[in-house]
Amino acid sequence: MGVALHDELADLRAQVGPQIFDDPVAFRAAFDDFVSEGSASTGEVSLLVGAIATGALQRLKDQLALGADPATSIAAQGDLLARDRGTSESDGARWALSVLAHASGAIPADLVLTRPAVPDSLSTPDRPTGSGSDVVDPGPTHRPTVDRAGPSPTAFGDATRVAGKEPSPDPHRPTAAAPEPGRPGGRRTNPLLLGAVAVLAVVAIVAVALLFLRDDDSPDNTADDQATSDGGDSGAPGSEDLLDEIEMSEAGKTVRVQLVRDDTEAFLVLLAEHEGDYTEVDRTPTSCPFLDTAYDAVIQDQGGRQLFWGWQNNGTEGYGEYGEVQIDEEMLIPFGIDAPCPGDG
């Protein structure tokens, strides 16, 4: 019986180092060089590369570092990966993430999911052989940034545009009108008429420019600019940024939980459906501020009406907090945290 793929990738990590799972190009090259041929189909290799290229693996490892439930996080990030790759079936994406998570040392082997019989990606039975210099296809769709606010994984450059297109005609160069059928030369234009049109065009341009200059120098515009610079409307309602949102249901009642921020302040907001519209019924501030360096904010349903929310800071520190949603009572109950907030230490 051959060695399981997740064990082969764990051996790859031991030989090359954990950084091999940070870059999709380097991973694909190392996969071709170190992993036994036939260990994965073309579609499965594409799933593994896509999980790295889209940032799904990094988001999963960040959540696990904050103490999130592995099974829940793998399922959530697997669904996002499948959506990024343009498919609604996520079994293969979840499997690929669990394999990479174990190979990178984030989860034990008993949490690796069973390989699906048919991978999400259509593929040939065997992966092609080749060296690490082969062109890498990270998947049908590729986003350098995350379903979220964090820094993107290694981004590929834009594809080279196809050369050989004829240059666009010069908009200032007059083009000759095509002669009408049956006429040798078409209609001739009076040069005096062309000159008159050109003069009128110049006059119109000058008039518009003078109007703009007059508007910019007017006292009303100066006052408006001063009000804007003073931040007159910066504190208007509705200025909060939505970081993440989930829905929770119990006994036929559905509520929405949002993680929002206003500058460095962040809040957990509960919305319930009243008369056909979702309205805010409760909110609670997060235990730590949302710093300028924060990214990858997330809310996760932990089951049993319990929630997890948090984000990363500076790539090494993270904030995470648990709480409960009383759906019937329309109430949020945070449990609080014991560790200091990122940046306080």
UniProtKB/TrEMBL annotation:
<feature type="region of interest" description="Disordered">
    <location>
        <begin position="216"/>
        <end position="240"/>
    </location>
</feature>
<feature type="compositionally biased region" description="Polar residues">
    <location>
        <begin position="121"/>
        <end position="132"/>
    </location>
</feature>
<keyword id="KW-0812">Transmembrane</keyword>
<feature type="compositionally biased region" description="Basic and acidic residues">
    <location>
        <begin position="163"/>
        <end position="173"/>
    </location>
</feature>
<keyword id="KW-1133">Transmembrane helix</keyword>
<feature type="region of interest" description="Disordered">
    <location>
        <begin position="118"/>
        <end position="187"/>
    </location>
</feature>
<keyword id="KW-0472">Membrane</keyword>
<protein>
    <submittedName>
        <fullName>Uncharacterized protein</fullName>
    </submittedName>
</protein>
<feature type="transmembrane region" description="Helical">
    <location>
        <begin position="192"/>
        <end position="213"/>
    </location>
</feature>
